[in-house]
Amino acid sequence: MTSWSGSATISTFLTLDDISKARKNHDPSKHKTPVLKLLAEARAKGYEAVSLPLTTEKWRTRWEEMCLLPSGSDRDSEINAEQKAEVWRSRPAFLNDEVTITRLDEAEGVTVMISDWLELDATDDWVRHDAEIALKQELAYASYLNIQSAILPAPRNREHAASYARIVNSCLKNTPYIHLSISLPIYNPSVLQHTQNPSLLFTENITSPESLSPSVSAPRLFVSGSSSEKLSSAPESELNATWEMWDLIRSICDYDTRLTLTLDLAPPLPSTIGVLSKWAAESVRSILLPASTFIANAKGYPVLPKTAQSFIRECMIHHPTVILSAANAGQHTRGGETAYAQYVRHLEKTSPAVQAAERAGTVENFAQGYQDYLQAPLQPLMDNLQSVTYQTFEQDPIKYAQYEEAMYRALLDWDEEKIVFCIAGAGRGPLVTRCLTAIERTRRDAIIYAVEKNPNAFVTLQNRKEREWGDKVQLLFGDMRFIDVPEQADILVSELLGSFGDNELSPECLDGAMRFLKPTGISIPSSYTAHLAPLSSSKLFNEARATKDLKSLETPYVVMFQAVNILSGEGGGLSGRCGPQIQECWEFEHPRRDPVLDARGLPKTNSHNARSAKLNFYIPYAGVLHGLAGYFEAVLYGNVGLSIHPHRKDHISKDMLSWFPLFFPFKEPLFLPSNSELQVSIWRLTTERQVWYEWHAESFLSSPSFAQIDATLQRSPSLGSASASTLPSGGIQSPLIDAEDPVFMQRARHMSLDSSHFYETVKIGQTSLHNPGGRSSWIGL
Amino acid sequence: MTSWSGSATISTFLTLDDISKARKNHDPSKHKTPVLKLLAEARAKGYEAVSLPLTTEKWRTRWEEMCLLPSGSDRDSEINAEQKAEVWRSRPAFLNDEVTITRLDEAEGVTVMISDWLELDATDDWVRHDAEIALKQELAYASYLNIQSAILPAPRNREHAASYARIVNSCLKNTPYIHLSISLPIYNPSVLQHTQNPSLLFTENITSPESLSPSVSAPRLFVSGSSSEKLSSAPESELNATWEMWDLIRSICDYDTRLTLTLDLAPPLPSTIGVLSKWAAESVRSILLPASTFIANAKGYPVLPKTAQSFIRECMIHHPTVILSAANAGQHTRGGETAYAQYVRHLEKTSPAVQAAERAGTVENFAQGYQDYLQAPLQPLMDNLQSVTYQTFEQDPIKYAQYEEAMYRALLDWDEEKIVFCIAGAGRGPLVTRCLTAIERTRRDAIIYAVEKNPNAFVTLQNRKEREWGDKVQLLFGDMRFIDVPEQADILVSELLGSFGDNELSPECLDGAMRFLKPTGISIPSSYTAHLAPLSSSKLFNEARATKDLKSLETPYVVMFQAVNILSGEGGGLSGRCGPQIQECWEFEHPRRDPVLDARGLPKTNSHNARSAKLNFYIPYAGVLHGLAGYFEAVLYGNVGLSIHPHRKDHISKDMLSWFPLFFPFKEPLFLPSNSELQVSIWRLTTERQVWYEWHAESFLSSPSFAQIDATLQRSPSLGSASASTLPSGGIQSPLIDAEDPVFMQRARHMSLDSSHFYETVKIGQTSLHNPGGRSSWIGL
Lengths: 781, 781
Hints:
2 copies of one chain form a homodimer. By secondary structure, the first copy, chain A, is of the alpha/beta class.
């Protein structure tokens, strides 16, 4: 469990200039080495961590002399260089003055920057090959010095990103322990190459100016913050470009947990935050924040542009290390070096995530330490809960207030002289107490039957009846599906809901309890719905994979989401056939209409509790699907409800603590391009003894098609006018497949016409059913 | 190993009509049951197998009365039906007259057809639910009768194909042993709904006419062969539609080996065979061939249309069961019932695959029993080969003839008085013998040094020198990389090539042997190239997955391809950036130019033998990528070569037997839509001690884009005119990333302009590197 206080670690970046200045002025009587002096100074200034380049210009010079053929060099010098290179390749090693640090104490707690002029994705095979050897040499040296974390230069060349990724993967596999972090601007800086006068800022601090000549290196391109206005119109595809490289790298590295991201905020951010939300789902370890990214406020103090502010606030969920550079360069007139770190701390304190976590009574505060932690859902029907579990859930101030309100209103609406309540599943009695209060508030004459099957909780109930409740409460020990109750109830109250509504078998339990509800009686809850949205989270994907228990692997998890991104957007998608961001799967109602019952009043089979849903989601921005987020919403009575639906929970039951969402994992991640559509199928399946879910997703790409419009319209005149709205919905009771309607659906390429364009939808991928064949049914009936 | 004689099994389909007629005329003194009589008759007619429907009309009637609500039924009959259904759902069981067979001897060797009116993909939830129960009931009954194989009704509803698939998967997981085969028309018959007067033919044989009323069922739609002309223009997307459903089903069933395809040839085939090649990669078990598919030839005998002929010939690689139906219905005037089976046998005999396998001297004949069988590549450097292995390869009549021809021509071209040959890796001596013949043919003065490191083969060499070769041949025992040779050779001959050219370490071995070649000397081979193509094969995917040995899992295999489909097409793709169907990765040349050598004349590192390639393939038809097919081509001397490149082998070295292609498997299948592009990266990697390959693929979809043309062109005027041809090629020696060129490459959406359209390429998927980090290097140097 991590604490929110100090979400961010603030680090300073020592440049080669800093180190070389310290060398010049070194006084061995005070500090053993110049770097140790710099480290002590950084600590004194309040920095919690230090980053520095691992190698010096000397190393760059030697490497380039060996490995790059200068244009116009003669044959002899070529052979000479190649001979040196071959000797080096056979035994890669540094000379003393080619590295910045040489001692364990200089390396302690330090994050090193790998030589950023290494082109791991160079177009030239030999440059790539020798850059790989150099990278491995640097990492081996860093490991020797017990360095825990190294930042790699950003990939720059989409065409050879797979080579970059292969090299990183090879390093992860061959270098134990060390964490590698890929530095990456949030969007592709190449679009800036056409803007006037791009300046290289962050790079200046790392390498000396003369080394930046374009003939020998293609350093990371960072542009000054002042050009941010020009960039705010960068199209989404550009913003996806660097993410796509990151996705390729981590996929080839098979989501290695030692691989993280260092986001480079030197390039100005786009003005819309929407496209940035994808970074929430990635393992962001650090943020590079050069002083040049700051702008001066009216008083001259360094502050960040609005988008950067919001983005850094959002990033606090990652507990990032914020690496400040050039803070000592005096780029702003007021505040001095400490102003930058103070400003980051200000952003931290004003981060919505941090604030929610720190405010007592919020679910974020309640969930401290449980963010992105996978829990198996409770199985209260199979397992008898512990007292401490009941206690945790009884802490929820909202849920039981809502129940009391629902019972209160039901009482007001109910016309009987004497009202019979039945609490089905009383647990340790929280609903009994609330029910008594509701009765008191209405001054109605009522009695309560409290049914409970957990023998241990039943002791608590007896104790409370004796001490608190008295004769108004009758206790009944047994399973609500089989027990006999002295009289039928007017109002049946239960709290059997799971994070997905029906996932703790409320429908099955209430089928049994309906026997003792009067035919016109009220059930609280009266209905509940399950909701889904497609989710991306490399953290959750890795957590689910790491689960050793096969049975757990095939079930959904209860998770307090944090480092996740919901991939779906609002709106109908290009085809117009998509629903909203979060979509309803199905509903259960109580009491339910006319099931066929046996002599005992129980359903003969559980078929009526089977459900299925097929949902169409619009995916505006490219992302990787790792699973589905599951939510529920319940109507207790009238307009009193419970909800963990992200868009509606604050309206319906704000600050309710009892339910985290459900996470349905997929075995294999599925790449979803921008403007694609995702079709999710989910089934609630049941046998006599078991209930379980299965889920599946297929992705489609819609794109405007002018090449085939004419041909298609001519071929099948009735097809062009078919639209999504004329399709049969899933709820139709008829078993008949009409010969006319399915034409549209049976086509591999679905077509539709909107007002202006003709779109074609082509299947592009799928991720297979996670929970096949009911092997892993997870609740015994 | 399977024999080619009898590729196809010919089966007859017994209809309910056949069975009911046999019941009427049953004579218990001759046969125990009517079905046993029919089986005996079928055997007498020469059929090798029998298929029949498992259930009768009685069962259909009962199921429909219970599970379908007839329109206009009253409340009481609804409840009555629902009560019956609930009883059935809780204990699904047949009555005696609802099934066609009841005895083990009736079921022996029989393939049953599951009730084809079961709508496993119905739009209505309840119909689907009850169809699933009925299907499981039928399969349980079939299992009880020890039936090995059942054919399931075709999926019909793309919208609910995932539900169909989930049900099939559940059946596979819950029913041990039985094989399930999905019947499937080759293209989506729904396009026929607009043609005039579609007739239902095959279905008529299964169910009685009155049951076909569209209000209670949506039976498989099969149309008569006579409408084939109308259909020949069916677009490719329609032809992909049923394949896409099949792909979805087998993917959700995780490529279960008990799941196969029964292709239904009742609908007429398209006139082009190209799009049909995808079925070669699928596990086709049976072909349904109703008499109505046949047309009458000039003499009135039943024959098939040309496309169907070719398709069935191609299908012989699957060793299918061809299920003939209605052959006894007298639909053709000549030939009687036996004419249909005779015609299928004719197609079998004239199948190119069968003919190639039966013709002595072909690689197909030589490879009998090795089709689609995964073999680990030889590692002759690490392992000393057995005499029997040498013997197998010495059988190749073409390879050694080519070598002799190459040596002969090199001798003619060589100007020295006395010529020194060195055979590097002489094995048991086949090249020595050929070399002596070549010398004799040219009457030149020459001697041969034969180097061999295998001590066992060296005994054979000594024996042959003594008995056959005499003084013209000097034997040298040792590894060519380290041995000293008395004099330098004019012509160095080696046969170290693997299926991918360099994969048995020819480059590394010849680096050593170059020490004893004169500076201007000749190497035979003088060069070789490696070639790749994307491949689909569910068989090979399953075979590779089944390999238990982790190390083997991460290496390529030697395979004689059969049930595979090369996914790439010729032509540049929509973007114009794609290469041909099979593309060259890299080349090795001997003697190679100026490597830096150590004092012993050996390279200091193996860096110069590292290679990488990035290839763009055009994928015309949707398919699933399971791996890469690898081939080689070698120039021995001048225009004498060796090739297993599918397009060129017959031209260069026809009927050469020594090499099957290589198969590079992917861990996860990758769905590729029609008209997509596949970018394949492959690396030949090396350390001091190891050589290995890694490979990776990303898929992209190009589509015409008119929505963004204007915006993009305005945003970045220079972008629109960037074209693939101006990009730096992979071979450029400069390490410099030019600031101007990479703009195009670094964009996530690659754009290009051809003469008429503006295309946009969007990444849609990837399959990860199979062999990460060099863990599984497979050849020790």
